[in-house]
Amino acid sequence: MSKLVIEDHPILLSPRLAEMVGLNEDIFIQQLHYWQTNSKHVHDGQKWVYNSYESWNEHFPFWSHTTIRRIVTRLEKVELIITGNYNIYKNDKTKWYRVNYELIAELCKEEPERKNRGKKNCLLELSNRTDEPDKSPEVADQSEQQHEPDWSPSPSILDEALPETTSEITPEKKSEDEEVGVRGHENPFTFFEKNGFGTIGVHISDRISAWCIDLSDELVLEAMKQAVEYGGKNWKYVEAILRYWADRGYQTIDDVHAGQLAFKERLSKNLNRAPAPMGRDIPRNSNYDINAGESDDDC
């Protein structure tokens, strides 16, 4: 036990931020902050970190794929982390991440007032704020930020680590406020389990994650929805749809709908086309030579 505590890299957390956003979310933000601080990838005046869900799972082995996806989705929704795409290849859907330091600094300023109102966790409040139509994300003026940013505007929150703790950090229980934060957000994993496909095992979870990276979360979700409509509530059917779309280079739901519309139009034309005349129905003035290929010996 002592070797585990000494040899393993400790996971940092901030009790203050964990109280405001949740323990799981704080752990993820702290780790992202550490990687971002040491990152050499700078785009639009900001440092970024890129990773897939499989790679996140290697760094957080005590969380399942579903838990990691839920944490990232929740932090994206309330804009505590900002995502982007700076991949060289267009088909590469790997996401890039950075911490929204400005929003964290704002939360620190509002913390005393929030405590006076008896509200500790602020994610529900942030979720309601980002749902307002007139609010634009912090990245709206990102193109104008060409100066070197302050990577840690709130060191009292992001640098107050507790590496000496010996408690095992394996929070898997969903808190009530966490359920509120993710309610209403559809993703392939929750849709799969809630619409009769069955329980997600490790293999299927890995396959879903892989397709989300190869195509996108939206296309995987759309494939599942179409599988439900066609009565094929199993992963093999969903994966067959995804392979079909990938072979045709579909990258968005609009591409899928356009392809399906074109297929229906071709099918309609074929059905409406008059059948070709055969045998005695061939007109006498036809350009077709019905004796083509026959020799005189055959007559």
Extended strand count? 5
* Structural class estimated from helices and strands: mainly alpha
Q: What is the count of distinct domains?
A: 2
Q: Tell me the series of helices and strands, N- to C-terminal.
A: HHHEEEHHEEHHHHHHHHH
Oligomer: single chain
Q: What would the principal axes of the Cα set say about the shape?
A: elongated
Beta percentage is 5-15%
Major sheet description: 3 strands, antiparallel
Number of helical runs?
14
Report the C-alpha radius of gyration, rounded. Answer: 28 Å
Summarize model confidence as the mean pLDDT.
72
Main sheet strand line-up: 3-5-4
**Helicity level, as a percent range?**
40-55%
Runs in which pLDDT lies below 50 for 5 or more consecutive residues are 130-157, 159-184, 281-295
- N- to C-terminal separation? 96 Å
Descriptive report:
With 299 residues, the chain is mainly alpha-helical. It has two domains: 6-182; 188-272, DnaD domain-like (Arc Repressor Mutant, subunit A). The chain contains 14 helices and five strands. The strands form two sheets. It has a three-stranded antiparallel sheet with strand order 3-5-4. The chain starts with a helix and ends in a 27-residue tail after the last helix.
